[in-house]
Specification:
Elements: H1 2-18, E1 31-40, E2 47-49, H2 54-64, E3 71-73, E4 83-88, E5 97-101, E6 105-110, H3 113-128, E7 134-142, E8 148-154, H4 162-174, E9 179-183, E10 185-186, E11 189-190, H5 199-202, E12 206-207, H6 212-216, E13 231-232, H7 237-249, E14 253-260, H8 265-270, H9 291-307, E15 312-316, H10 323-327, H11 329-337, H12 343-360, E16 364-368, E17 381-384, H13 389-396, E18 401-403, H14 406-409, H15 431-435, E19 452-459, H16 467-474, H17 477-486, H18 494-510, E20 523-529, E21 534-540, E22 547-551, E23 562-563, E24 568-571, E25 574-582, E26 585-586, E27 590-594, E28 603-606, E29 638-640, E30 644-665, E31 676-682, E32 689-695, E33 706-726, E34 733-740
Parallel strand pairs: 2-3, 2-4, 4-6, 8-9, 8-19, 9-14, 14-15, 15-16, 16-17, 17-18, 18-19
Antiparallel strand pairs: 1-7, 5-6, 5-7, 10-11, 12-13, 20-21, 21-24, 22-23, 22-25, 25-26, 25-27, 28-30, 29-34, 30-33, 30-34, 31-32, 31-33
The chain binds acetamide.
């Protein structure tokens, strides 16, 4: 009996330690089986390595604090009884690896140096998120989902020194990101030494104002390397080569981007002969009618290819205005001589010509999705940034695609509520949204899905003047993207991810990374049942295992308010307040008003349609009870590029005391308040009587994200139909709900 109890206790203890979750690796490996026990390492631990993995062995030794003299060649057929073994196995699969951690030894098996590096990075993460000197026993097998896992850094709008680029590459490698797309040229500064064109870096790499904003909204003048008042910088070819070599040692390919034919203002500031004739000021688009443009680009790309061994050479291709080409005699002659239809085909001509040059040198052209316009060059790969559309189109044409849609991959957007954040370009992309990204578009047929090679995050740096700020914008969002790109999507789980991120935050602190801390904001997520007039509520935060307390009576949550453990239901109109509690106090209070107003679930007639890009929840949007959040891309904000003109049918004539609707303004992307809202009432749906008007008082020049509720109060009015008319100022109107009492 006693021995049975002892056995049961032993089994319980064993199960307990099995379920301890001591391994917190991100991206999540394909399979982790945690085992009892641990491998202990010290300065005496030996590392036995196949000769191909010697560089990785040295890296691992450094991370674990093992002297490099302890690295020994692994003799073929030998089986060391202890220490760390990095062993080459036969096979082709370059990035896959297996790790066995026992209390006696660690064995990493893989066919390729890249696989060895990933095994080492997994060990590095286990060590850096755990206790020094201890690696918990486990069996891990792993391989990536996508071959291309990238991050793009714009070093034109702001320049970051080579040391920072290397620090960033080290961190990216730790998270198994394998591609660094380096946006080296743009209007705000040319950043790579080109020996044949020294003025690119003595002049075009320098500008008159330190901040991009002052420069861009000012005179946009260029400076000079020797002028201490000039702001800028560049990478010498030697520095760039050093960065490429360092990246390679960390399993990262560096893809250079040299922009053409647009975003080339800085080139023409110093080489005006490359402009279109008749172009005014400093134009952004190179003249395509001018052969000198191609000679210049080919010379530059030739030097670029001597520095960067990457298969891909990125030539930009985005956002080229067509205006100057329309009036330039040389561009028009080029169109005529080549039987081109228009300026889109002219742009395509320029890309095709570069593609031919690049592919003749054994490389591949990569470009933003505008390279689809006017005809896609053969052999080119498309980076889909204006949503998924370009990626789908290119994949359907059997071209390779890298996905980088703005909604999920633009890390220059805000990641927390803008009010408390450093100024960003606009938009909103939080960690959970990045984590929710699926790179294979739902509508892409199975046979074409293999053309999606992966995805990348883009860091445009107009509003990111310092390295600390850059850290902040990249981390932790890139870690979420790394899991999206590496791990099995069937294993994706936000709560479980947060549990591993808890440990990763500690790692980032150890590495002196100025990452964006998880927010205490409680997202209150309602599921409204209009028929029952009830609402199910889920609460969510970026915190791991938070203590969330909430109220439903309008009072502020305290240490004794209801503890959130699972989804709950409230009846009728209510006010939910919720807060993450720490040491018995609330951190901040978030509120959601659930309002079963008279229009909920009613029919809405659109006198003018919504804009097709922003349908939100179509006919139900404005009367579904859901308020929009901070981003117009959340599926609750409906967009209009005309006046907004809708009629709500309340089903029967009844008293109406007020009608209101909230609008968003963020003028960067062209979203404005309406000039006014006018409400009119009808009993028959034909004859409307104006009930009142609410006029905008938010300045339409204010660049901050703002919201305004336009309310019309009605005195003693009854009606069945309510016409809600909002006058479009310019650009987009965005409305989320029309509330009727
Ligand atoms: C881009 O964001 N212009 C590619």
């Amino acid at each position: 009996m006693k021995s049975l109890i002892v056995s049961i206790c032993f089994i319980c203890l064993t199960l307990l330690s099995f379920s301890q979750n001591r391994i917190h690796v991100v991206p999540k490996p394909r399979q982790v089986i945690e085992k009892n026990g641990e491998f202990r390492y010290s300065a005496n631990t030996m590392i036995h390595t196949s000769p191909e993995f010697r560089e990785t062995a040295a890296y691992l030794a450094e991370i674990l604090g093992i002297p490099s003299k302890n690295i020994q060649p692994l003799k073929p057929g030998s089986k060391p009884a202890s220490g760390i073994v990095l062993e080459k196995t036969p096979g082709q699969d370059s990035a896959a690896y297996r790790l066995s951690i026992t209390d006696k030894k660690i064995t990493a098996l893989t066919a390729h140096p890249v696989g060895a590096l990933y095994a080492a990075q997994t060990l590095a993460q286990i060590s850096l998120t755990g206790t020094k000197g201890i690696l918990p026993c486990a069996e891990i097998s792993d391989e990536p989902r996508f071959a291309y896992r990238g991050l793009m850094l714009d070093v034109s709008r702001n320049f970051y020194p080579p040391e920072y680029v290397k620090k960033l590459l080290s961190l990216l490698s730790l998270y198994k990101i394998n591609t660094f797309h380096w946006h080296l040229t743009d209007a705000a500064g040319w950043r790579l030494e080109i020996k044949k064109y020294p003025e690119l870096t003595t002049r075009a790499a320098w500008r008159s104002s330190k901040t991009w904003k002052d420069w861009w909204f000012g005179k946009r003048e260029y400076g000079n390397e020797n002028d201490p008042k000039s702001y800028g910088g560049y990478y010498t070819q030697e520095q760039a080569r050093d960065i490429v070599a360092f990246a390679k040692s960390r399993g990262i390919t560096v893809i250079p981007e040299i922009e053409m034919p647009g975003h080339s203002d800085e080139v023409m500031a110093i080489y005006p002969h490359l402009r279109c004739d008749g172009a005014k000021g400093i134009p952004g688009e190179l003249c395509i009618g001018n052969d000198s443009t191609f000679i210049f680009m080919q010379d530059v790309i030739t030097e670029v290819m001597s520095i960067f061994p990457s298969t891909y050479i990125h030539i930009g291709g985005d956002e080229a205005g067509k205006g100057n080409w329309k009036t330039c005699s040389k561009c028009q002659k080029r169109i005529k001589d080549n039987n081109l239809k228009d300026e889109y085909e002219l742009q395509s001509y320029s890309i095709r010509r570069m593609e031919k040059f690049i592919s003749q040198k054994g490389r591949k052209l990569l470009g933003w999705d505008e390279i689809l316009e006017g005809g896609l060059a053969p052999g080119s790969t498309v980076m889909s940034w204006r949503g998924e559309r370009g990626g789908i189109e290119a994949a359907n044409m059997n071209h390779d695609v890298i996905m980088t849609p703005g909604n999920y991959c633009y890390f220059d957007k805000y990641q927390q509520e803008p009010a408390g954040e450093p100024e960003a370009i606009g938009g909103y992309l939080n960690l959970q949204k990045v984590y929710s990204y699926e790179p294979i578009p739902a509508e892409l047929e199975k046979a074409k899905q293999h053309f999606i090679k992966g995805a990348q995050a883009n860091l445009w740096t107009e509003y990111i003047p310092s390295m600390e700020h850059l850290d902040y914008m990249i981390f932790p969002r890139i870690i979420a993207l790394s899991e999206v790109l590496w791990s099995d999507p069937a294993n994706r789980n936000w709560d479980e991810f947060k549990s591993r991120m808890y440990w990763q935050y500690g790692l980032l602190q150890k590495m002196n990374v100025n990452y964006c801390r998880p927010s205490d904001k409680v997202e209150i997520m309602p599921a409204i049942d209009p028929a029952r007039k009830t609402t199910s509520i889920k609460l969510n935060t970026e915190q791991y295992k938070p203590e969330i307390r909430y109220t439903t009576d309008g009072s502020n949550p305290t240490a004794t308010s209801a503890l959130y453990t699972k989804e709950f239901e409230v009846a009728g109109s209510s006010m939910i307040k919720a807060s993450v509690m720490r040491n018995g106090s609330s951190t901040r209070i978030d509120t959601l008003l659930i309002d079963f107003h008279k229009a909920i679930g009613r029919k809405v007639i659109y006198n003018k349609p919504w804009n097709n890009s922003y349908p939100a929840q179509k006919e139900s949007t404005l009367v579904n009870g859901y308020k929009g959040t901070l981003t117009y891309q959340d599926g609750q904000w409906q967009g209009f590029t005309t006046d907004m003109d809708v009629v709500i049918d309340l089903g029967e004539t009844q008293p109406i005391s007020s009608v209101s609707g909230t609008f968003m303004q963020i003028i960067g992307p062209g979203v404005y308040m309406p000039d006014f809202v006018e409400v009119s009432i009808s009993n028959d749906g034909n004859n409307f009587v104006t009930a009142g008007k609410s006029v905008n008082d938010v300045p339409t020049t204010d660049p901050k994200l703002s919201f305004k509720t336009f309310r019309v109060n009605l005195e003693n009015l009854t009606g069945r139909y309510i016409r809600f008319y909002a006058k479009n100022h310019t650009g987009f109107l965005f409305a989320d709900e029309i509330i009727v009492y």
